[in-house]
Design a protein that fits this description.
5-stranded antiparallel beta sheet, 11-stranded mixed beta sheet, alpha+beta, single chain
């Protein structure tokens, strides 16, 4: 390894000296401007992709507003069932592809089990865009039959530009590439979050020896941007019970960075105390760790403010924009 480093350093030095010599021999030609690489934004705790993308059934922006609404609906019905599909997408006014008002109503939609949710793939320069003066997406509530849970969600934004991008699976979608200002609201009952987490954990655990039997959550607000969290997970490792209790404090600062403090783990039941001995070193990496709370597909769109309350119901209200 050290040999490779020295070889690499030697090559770098050689190329640098060669550049100086060539530059001296060709002094009349101006040197090209240095390449400035933008630093990669830090990974956030929460990715807002789900709030910022609208799936399409075709890879281009349709030529008319009516066809756009049909394309969006055709994509939505692959992931949800609706009580009245005709009310899902509403477009009003504007000179297309500019739209005055776009309303997406997913209220009382039921998620189709195992349906893949689109996520943004590698961002590429878009050759097609859609401009929306007044955008909103509402789901009051969005239901899951699989976990028997529901959640409420509202997104509003003004001065929005949607770019055509592709998901990681290569499917077309509209991504919120720009927004002058916007708001995001999310709330769900803690017991519904428990059921959602348990369903997901059981699905993952079915692939191995660990079976998750129960998840219980206890949240307490200690300020508009701080919560104390307790989670107890009851599992079976093979046929042997193992319980684990995790506690943590989450604080969000004025720069919209979230830090995890006082992260602890305790074991109970037969195998719990032994298991936590193995996972504590990994948990220690997160204790005191700070990252942006939320990131958007376009890093120029940023979280501006957030308020969180937690108890029997968890509520998040956020403001975002450029």
């Amino acid at each position: 390894m050290e040999h490779r480093r020295w070889v690499s350093a030697g090559r770098t030095l050689s190329f640098a000296l060669l550049a100086v010599v060539i530059g001296g021999c060709c002094a009349k030609k101006p040197a090209p401007p240095p390449v400035v690489l933008k630093p990669k934004p830090p990974e956030a705790w929460i990715k807002a992709d789900a709030f910022c993308i609208l799936p399409l059934s075709e890879s281009v922006v349709p030529p008319t507003g009516g066809q756009l609404a049909d394309s969006m609906l055709s994509a939505w019905i692959k992931a949800f069932t609706f009580p009245d599909a005709a009310k899902v997408v509403t477009l009003i006014g504007g000179r297309y592809p500019a739209i005055d008002v776009m309303r997406v109503d997913l209220s009382d939609a039921v998620a189709i089990p195992k349906a893949k949710r689109p996520s943004v793939g590698e961002l590429k320069p878009s050759v097609q865009s859609l401009w929306v003066s007044d955008f909103s997406l509402v789901a009051e509530p969005l239901r899951s039959k699989e976990s028997d849970s529901q959640a409420n969600m509202q997104i509003t934004a003004s001065g929005v530009r949607f770019d055509v991008q592709k998901s990681k699976d290569g499917m077309p979608l509209l991504m919120m590439a720009d927004a002058g200002s916007g708001t995001l609201h999310f709330d769900t009952l803690t017991r519904d979050l428990e059921k959602s987490m348990l369903t997901a954990a059981k699905e993952r655990g079915s692939r191995g020896l660990v079976s998750v039997r129960n998840i219980s959550l206890d949240f307490k607000s200690v300020g508009p941007r701080s919560i104390d969290a307790v989670m107890h997970v009851s599992t079976l490792v093979g046929f042997i019970p193992a319980g684990m209790k995790f506690t943590a404090r989450v604080d969000i600062d004025d720069q919209m960075n979230a830090t995890i403090y006082n992260l602890t783990a305790e074991g109970d039941e037969a195998l719990g105390p032994l298991i936590v001995q193995f996972i504590r070193p990994s948990l220690a990496k997160y204790d005191g760790k700070t990252k942006p709370l939320m990131s958007f597909p376009n890093p120029e769109v940023k979280l501006k403010d957030v308020q969180i309350s937690a108890g029997e119901r968890i509520t998040l209200d956020a403001v975002f924009g450029k």
